[in-house]
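_Backbone structure tokens_
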Amino acid sequence: MAGHSKWANIQHRKGAQDKKRGKIFTRLIREITTAARMGDPDPVNNPRLRLAIDKGLAANMPKDNIERAIKRGSGETDGGTFEEIRYEGYGPGGAAVLVDCLTDNRNRTASEVRHAFSKFGGNLGTDGSVAFLFTRTGVVNYEPGADEDAIMEVALDAGADDIVTNDDGSIDVIVAPDEFDSVVTALDEAGLESADADIIQKASTASELDQKSAESMMKMVDMMEELDDVQEVHSNAEFPEDFKPA
């Protein structure tokens, strides 16, 4: 979520995730399994798997769970196969939304995602209807008050594309996906530990929402993130400066 209330919205997301850690584990295990199935089971040679493992460790997932998921994905043990599906649409206020899923039942997932869109005044669109607005991008986020000069020096030397200071004082380091690991490692080694680091779908334009639409948008995203089949929800929604997540 972009905009004036970026940091508050990030904190809201993380607070909501903490309350549903079981679902977070399920989601991460699916991603680890799929990443291992689609590429090398050695994370050194598989950036997608390496990122999924890092997310699992950051969420305090036991290493045994991670190892079992890798073995299922690589075929060492029996396990389900999940299909990657992306849904596109428009949320409250006309904001663009991408919903990335891993599912073993396409019909179930489509029905659940469509219901979430319609419940809060959104619409499920066709393939390609909003995807062109997003670019896969690495983002390393720092909370307000972080040392911008130090972050800029280390990040740019390590290969980052840009440093963006948001209206709320939080800082985003923008990185090409291929450079993501090296930039995050350089920042960590310099003692500049981030609040959040991920490869996301970054919107090229923002859709400004009023208070009512922002509230509906947040509820819609929350509902989607509760679905077992949903891995990530991306949007170009920009919230009002005085927006306070419920």
